[in-house]
Amino acid sequence: MPSSNVFWTLVKYELKSGYMTRKKMRKGKMPQKIWLMYAVLLFIVFLCFTVYATNQHWGFQLRNVWYFTLGLPWMLFGYGMGAIKNEWENSTEGWWLTLPYSRNTLIGAKYIAALLKTLYILLVTYALAIVYGVLYGVCISVLKGGFPLHEVIFFIVSGFWWYLLLMGLMPLMVSIGVLVAVIKYTNAKYISPLIYFFMFILGYGMYGGLGVMNQKHNLYSIFSGETSPGSSPFPVVFFYFLIAGWILAYLLTRFSAYLLKNKLDV
Amino acid sequence: MTASIVNCQQITKRYGDKHALDELNVSIPENKIVGILGPNGSGKSTFFRMITGLVKPDSGEIEVLGKRPGSGINREIAYLPDRARWYPNHTVAGAFEWAEKLLPGFDIANAKELADFMEMKRDMRVSGMSRGQEARLMLILCMARNVPLIILDEPFSGIDVISRERIIEGMIDYLSDRDQTILISTHEIYEVEGMFDYAIFLNQGKAILSGDTEELRAQYGSMHDIFRQFYRYGKGGF
Amino acid sequence: MDIRQVGALTFQLDFSQPLYEQILEQIRSALAKGEIGLGEKIPSVREMAHALKINPNTVMRAYKELERDGLTEKRRGQGTFVTTSEERVKTFRAELVKEYIDDFLNKMESLGYSWEDIEGYMQERGSRRKGSDLT
């Protein structure tokens, strides 16, 4: 069995493994169908509400909607964590950890699969946002006559910048998620608070940095409608940070593998 | 004297101030069905986790198949972990496919034969199985591997009598004529003791008695008797 | 103690004694009593192990000893059979007789009885037995 083959087999199984663990099933969490129904309902309510807001002349602009998605980076983090936690919640960790492959392979496969899953989620949510934008435009054109082309395009382009940033952050967020989950099952538990503190600083730095680095034209001013989304809201230095984040992501993933190899607490 | 497949010298493992293994010395002979016997908390699972490299000893030396435990040597070990479950989204056929791709030495023809014998339908999903059915599946995944060492940690606990009998018969049929060493830990000895060639009794992290089961019978009586004698006076929950 | 049936044979296994000896003894006695006839097939090691739920190595050990004694023979591809030699079973019965008598004599001697004493007891027992036959 060539090792690269095993790696992608592991990735494939990771992608196929469902969101539902045995523990969640026992707790009677909502089945996916019902969850989906609620999501669709929420989508419609939200659409109606924003259309209503525009009609009431509350100064609402379509791209303000992006403010609601500022929490997305934390979801990426959750995907990294879930990849590891599911093994323990399913009581399959013994099988997983005694597979005859290096810890780097095992963790690496989980990491890559989690990245692919988050990428998928980002693409799906962005596509949904576009659908939402178009539906909004249609509603407005019915009510007022004339499709608000400009507003919808600005909305989609603003989202593009935001999603570009999310994809750049994704490798780091997922690797932190993996590490936080791994730490829980090792003798390194005591560094958990440290990691959370580190994340808090990182989050604070990111959200603050987005506004501070270029005060005249940034992501927030695009979302609020103060500046046009026609040009990149990120100063060059921000990309250096992102690259540093990717390197850090690699190191953290290696560190997770090291912990699983040497500090496992079972 | 046959060669030994697992060799432990003065192994100690502590959790907090409790000794899971306490200067354990054990040598396990090759190509035998070996019972690792002792009450809960006597160190059986920790011992197995050490063989598979999940737990590292605080002190002492351990050799498995002549090497140090770790992911390299796990190619040659089939291990049923203690209280393990299987991936709930798999079917029997799906689990076999998983094993074929990821577990070296997994013989799918053999697995199918065992599945027929143990009455496991291929399209049954793990999330819909009884505990006994799930246990049978996990056991097949271990037994159908052509590896020199098979380790089964409490394979009978929490399983209905019918499943247990099926499992024992399956083991006797399929594992007997192979060159494999099988370690089975259990604290329910009575029904299974006839299977063992060799037995090791553990108590509080130490091996207190070991030997060929036939010789032990001649000297002390049944494994069940030995077990009762030892642990009646021990601190365990008897 | 469990009683288990394997084909025509019945076994009583006591786990507090070596199992191989019990299997050996019980097959031998079935042979001597004629419970299994000359040339009959006996269960395979696997069948026996399966039915008795014991380690096949244990069964194997007993079978090897039966073969060594010439009481059974392996036929290639067909399994294990009781010897077809009437002579062999006869000698085996004779051996058993000798064994039982030795055993009896040893016990009597250990109680301090002389050969004459034993002879006397045997004659007394013999005539009593004849007497009871007449009635």
Automatic annotation (TrEMBL), chain A:
Record bears the keyword Membrane: yes
Ranges that cross the membrane: 34-53, 65-84, 119-143, 163-182, 194-213, 233-253
Keywords, comma-separated and alphabetical: Membrane, Transmembrane, Transmembrane helix
Protein name as it appears in the record: ABC-2 type transport system permease protein
Species, as recorded: Scopulibacillus daqui
InterPro entries per UniProt: ABC2_memb-like
Keyword Transmembrane: yes
UniProtKB/TrEMBL annotation, chain B:
SMART domains for this protein: AAA
Gene Ontology molecular function, alphabetical: ATP binding
Pfam families assigned: ABC_tran
UniProt keyword list: ATP-binding, Nucleotide-binding, Transport
ABC transporter domain ranges (all copies): 6-229
PROSITE patterns: ABC_TRANSPORTER_2
Entry protein name: ABC-2 type transport system ATP-binding protein
From TrEMBL, chain C:
Keyword Acetylation assigned: no
Keywords (A to Z) from UniProt: DNA-binding, Transcription, Transcription regulation
Matches recorded under InterPro entries: Tscrpt_reg_HTH_GntR, WH-like_DNA-bd_sf, WH_DNA-bd_sf
Domain (HTH gntR-type) ranges: 17-85
CDD domains xref list: WHTH_GntR
A matching Pfam family: GntR
Name of this protein: GntR family transcriptional regulator
